[in-house]
Write a structure and sequence with these properties.
Elements lengths: L1 E3 L5 H13 L5 E5 L2 H9 L3 E4 L5 H7 L5 E4 L8 H14 L4 E7 L10 H14 L2 E7 L1 E2 L3 H5 L2 H4 L1 E3 L6 E2 L1 E2 L1 H13 L7 E5 L5 E2 H12 L4 E3 L3 H10 L4 H15 L9 H6 L6 H9 L2
Parallel strand pairs: 1-2, 1-4, 2-3, 4-5, 5-6, 6-11, 7-10, 8-13
Antiparallel strand pairs: 9-12
Helix pairs in contact: 1-8, 4-5, 9-13, 10-11
Bound molecules: NADP nicotinamide-adenine-dinucleotide phosphate.
């Protein structure tokens, strides 16, 4: 049986949908934090396991009888490596054969503040001796509207990048890649894939694409991270939102997303959706 964690989240539920659509006989279980969060999945025939990464006994119980595990990285950033370690140790104790994990692109270069937990988790997985497949995901293309804020309305996009390009890939297609991998685990044994779309773009280029697609001039300013943080603070945004935005900005500025590989194309069996396509759909909604 395949257990997918974060099963009620975006990536987890989309992966489950692809798995069930492409393999009607797939034996799929989903880890969620409460029965209510698993209700929709249960209706689709997914077996529900309840557990929280921070609660080892709950995870120990949830992984019983599982052969293949997709550990979707926690969205709760505090103590994230420890949370993942709980899952990996429980998987080892339960004799799970294969762990799939969602990491960040070029995790071992530790260019983003987000990379450290992922790099540490990758090491824990390798040290566990369990077969693994690691998908080092670029940032989600679906998050572009969040990065843009009100740029489409104001015609001005101020965001730090220090001239670096960013590679964004569709989360929906990442889910498809994960489902393909889970259905053919042996083929992907002890592999690490860099999951990016076919091209990285500078934020200047993205602003140009938005202008072209929307028919409205969008100018771009490459401001510093401290200027960005100050502007968000002055706008009265909640502290947590500012922290996440600053982390994203630092990731861009450090060039942590300025990478392009063809792994996603190979694993999808077609060219991943490019940013131009996404932007033309998004700007004309
Ligand atoms: N590449 C990117 O651009 C990007 C962007 C954002 C996040 N991520 C990472 O990718 C992961 C998947 O993305 P997503 O869009 O599917 O995120 P999401 O929709 O927020 O889903 C996260 C899932 O993780 C579960 N979770 C969080 N903390 C947990 C814990 N302590 N124990 C058990 N489950 C826990 C959540 O459960 P609840 O519903 O109970 O909270 C939810 O099911 C995220 O968790 C994050 O690590 C990547």
């Amino acid at each position: 049986m395949i257990l997918i964690t974060g099963a009620n989240g975006h990536l987890g539920s989309q992966t489950i949908d692809f798995l069930l659509t492409n393999n009607s006989d797939a034996d799929v279980a989903g880890l969620v934090r409460s029965a209510e969060k698993g209700a929709e999945l249960k209706e689709k025939g997914v077996k529900i396991r309840i557990g929280d990464y921070t609660d080892y006994p709950s995870i120990e119980k949830a992984v019983q009888g599982i052969d293949t595990l997709l550990l979707i990285s926690s969205s709760t950033l505090k103590g994230r490596t420890d949370q993942h370690n709980n899952v990996i140790q429980a998987a080892k104790e339960a004799g799970i054969n294969h762990i799939f994990y969602t990491s960040i692109v070029e995790a071992d270069k530790e260019l983003s503040l987000l990379s450290r937990d992922h790099a540490a988790t990758e090491k824990l997985i390798k040290n566990s001796g369990i077969s693994y497949t690691i998908y080092r995901n670029a940032f989600y293309m679906e998050f572009l509207p969040l990065f843009l804020g009100d740029a489409l309305e104001t015609g001005h996009w101020a965001f730090p990048s220090d001239g670096n390009a960013i590679n964004l890939a569709l989360r929906l297609e990442m889910a498809e890649v994960l489902a393909n991998g889970l259905a053919n685990a042996e083929e992907h044994k002890n592999s690490i894939y860099e999951i990016t779309s076919a091209q990285a773009y500078s934020l200047e280029e993205i602003a140009d694409m938005l202008s072209e697609a929307s028919g409205k001039e969008i100018s771009y300013s490459d401001i510093s991270v401290s200027e960005f943080e100050q502007a968000l603070t002055e706008a009265g945004l909640p502290e947590e939102q500012i922290a996440i935005s600053v982390m994203t900005a630092t990731t861009f500025v450090n060039g942590a997303l300025d990478f392009t590989y063809d792994d996603m194309q190979k694993l999808l069996g077609r060219k991943p959706t490019g940013l131009e396509t996404y932007i033309s759909e998004f700007a004309n909604q």
